[in-house]
Amino acid sequence: MRIRPETSWLTASGVGFALFPMLRPWGDKAMTQEGMVAAFGSSWWLVAHLLGAGGFVALSVALALRARVERRGRAAAWFAAVGTALVLPFFGAETFALHAIALLEPGSTPALAEGVRGGAAALGTFALGLLCLAVAGDLIAATRRRASGLRWAGIPLALGLVGYLPQFFLPAEGRIAHGVLMLVGAVVLALAWRREAPVNESTPARHVPAGV
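^ DUF998 domain-containing protein, sequence as received from the core. Prediction below:
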């Protein structure tokens, strides 16, 4: 069975989503200066957040590739792309600005971190991006329900995307569990895609290959 690029990108997105909370230092959640400096200044802070951002990018690429052969998935691809574009600036600030603050201004880290994280524009675009991703998740589930084969295969990933904003209010263990859900959802959907022959709905049925 030939491995399609969209399944590889989707699996990669799940890996990124899962490793982000697993590798992320959690010292900043203690809300102390020492904890924030230790977390933000760690190299693992950079690695984890880059993997998390990469998960959104890989998901958008996977859905865009899938939309080329499955017209019903185009709306999900568009919402995922817009959501990713809105989410990444906040991820970038979290990744690089907080890391630099911890290294250069350790005595002022809590106040400066609040400035980076608490701005209305930053939080607004981040929330709007996650809302778009939640819509993409719902569309993924809806598309799978109209597909052949594992019709429920889009539900775990959809639940993960819908729950991406609420999971920020969970403790570390809950956020790690959410990352695992994202990985499971991505793998299950990738396997469902892999089992299907890609069908371009604008192509007459006689041109569709019998199998792969």
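The mean pLDDT is 90.
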